[in-house]
Amino acid sequence: PEIKEEVLRKDDRFLTLLKDVYVESKDPPVQVKDGGQRLPSKHEEKRLTKLGHLEGLDVKKVPKGKISLVEALTLLNNHKLQPQIWTAEKIAAEYSLELKEVNSLLEFFIPFTVQEFPKETKKAIAGHKPKKLT
């Protein structure tokens, strides 16, 4: 209780000292260096995507040196189906990419393939009779 009273008690001496305190802060003026050079522009050169009938599924413009997700899947599938036509050099030229990056893309990313099981396997599974639990 004594501590609570001490905390809640106002000290007039400290209040008058607080009223006399005034803090003023100023930021230094911003210095603009003009050496005759312009700052680099953040404007990136963009290219239109090459999507054909899949145009509604993806972005319309991408920066040069990059590809969209749909374009990546398309070029990987084209290379998989026709590797003699869709070579790394042709892909790099077509999509404005570096040859080193295209080679890495073709080496490490492989599109999925869908495979159906033979009908004999389905019959073998369907012919199997489950055991009854008692």
TrEMBL record:
GO terms for cellular component: mitochondrion. One of its GO terms (biological process) is mitochondrial respiratory chain complex I assembly. It comes from the Eukaryota. It holds the Pfam family UPF0240. InterPro entries: NDUFAF4 (IPR009622). Binds calmodulin. Interacts with NDUFAF3. Belongs to the NDUFAF4 family. This is NADH dehydrogenase [ubiquinone] 1 alpha subcomplex assembly factor 4.
